[in-house]
Amino acid sequence: MEDREKIVILYDYYGELLTEVQRDYFEAYYFDNLSLSEIGENLNKSRNAVHKNIKSVVSRLYEYEDKLKLYMKDEKLKEIINEINDKKIKKELEELL
Q1: CATH number for position 63
Q2: Which pTM was predicted?
Q3: Where are the alpha helices (DSSP H) in 15-86?
């Protein structure tokens, strides 16, 4: 999986654990596809400060996953569910995810 894609998935899991400011930086860069310079202009910050903040947020997302492993567990559950032959049980478990 591409790093960018994984980072966005981790944000889906752990974004609420970030501060509002951290979410603003992350979303501007990853969702709005703004450059570091554009984000800096919008937030009155230097390009370097923006880069540092985004790098910090990404690092924090990986730290959360290392500790909580929600994404890894979810992927493992999906694998297990795919191996279940009973359609009723499979459907019920899929609805829980």
Answers
A1: 1.10.10.10
A2: 0.85
A3: 20-30, 36-43, 47-68, 70-82
